[in-house]
Amino acid sequence: MNRRNFLQIAGAGAAAALMPKSAFAAIGSSQVFTSDANSALVDSTVLMGEESAVLIDAQFTVPAATQLAGITEATGRRLETIFITHGHPDHYLGLEVFANRFAPFRSECSDWLRAMQLSLHGILGYWKISRGL
Fold first, then answer.
1. CATH 3.60.15.10 is right for the domain spanning 3-130
2. Which end of the chain has fewer beta carbons closer than 10 Å to its terminal beta carbon, N or C?
3. What pLDDT is stored for residue 112 in this prediction?
4. Do the bridges between strand 78-84 and strand 106-109 make them parallel or antiparallel, or are there none, so unpaired?
5. Consecutive H or E run containing 108
6. Considering just the CA atoms, what is the radius of gyration of the chain in Å?
7. Which long-range contacts (C-beta less than 8 Å, at least 24 apart) are formed by 104-107?
8. How far from chain centre, in Å, is Cα 63?
9. Nearest C-alpha neighbor of 78 from the set 98, 97, 60, 59
10. d(CA 32, CA 47)
11. What are the domain boundaries of the chain?
């Protein structure tokens, strides 16, 4: 099993674990996007159903998130949900790009990450300044 196959399976597993049972639809295909070294080589996965898509992790930098948004849009499916797998900034700082391009969509994260949201505002400000976002 190569890295991309592993990420596709892991992405589907993460979506299954976080998604309410009523939201399940057949996953027709998936696509893994890996940002370049300037954007920390972050992996994101787009899971595609017949009419909608689910994104696993929103990238680190605006250029990488913009590129991923283009890939997501090119699927021709409505972005339904973005899952943030954990609290590292390279998984959520690109959310703003998606909010500006695809709203409304649902965003989901673990209970642990939800509990960290209050402190994330300060962290987000720091990373935006330090990474030129």
1. yes
2. N
3. 62
4. parallel
5. strand 106-109
6. 14
7. 105/79, 105/80, 105/81, 106/80, 106/81, 106/82, 107/81, 107/82, 107/83
8. 14
9. 98
10. 9
11. 3-130
Neighbours of 88 (CB within 10 A): 14
Which amino acid, one-letter code, is at 83? Answer: F
Query: 33 near 58, Cβ under 8 Å?
Result: no
Quote the tokens at residue 108. Answer: 């989901």
CA distance 93 to 127: 8
In whole numbers, what is the pLDDT of the chain averaged over residues?
A: 81
| Whether the predicted pLDDT of 115 surpasses 80 | no
Buried b (16+ CB within 10 A) or exposed e, 10-27: ebbebbeebbeeeeeeeb
Residue with tokens 């996953």, as numbered in its chain:
27
Per the CB < 8 A criterion, the answer to whether 59 and 72 are in contact is no
Q: Name the amino acid, one letter, at 47.
A: L
**What amino acid is encoded at 118 in this protein?**
L
**Predicted TM-score of the model (pTM):** 0.71
Q: List the structure tokens of 2.
A: 């190569």
Main-chain dihedrals φ then ψ at residue 52, nearest 5 degrees: -135, 165
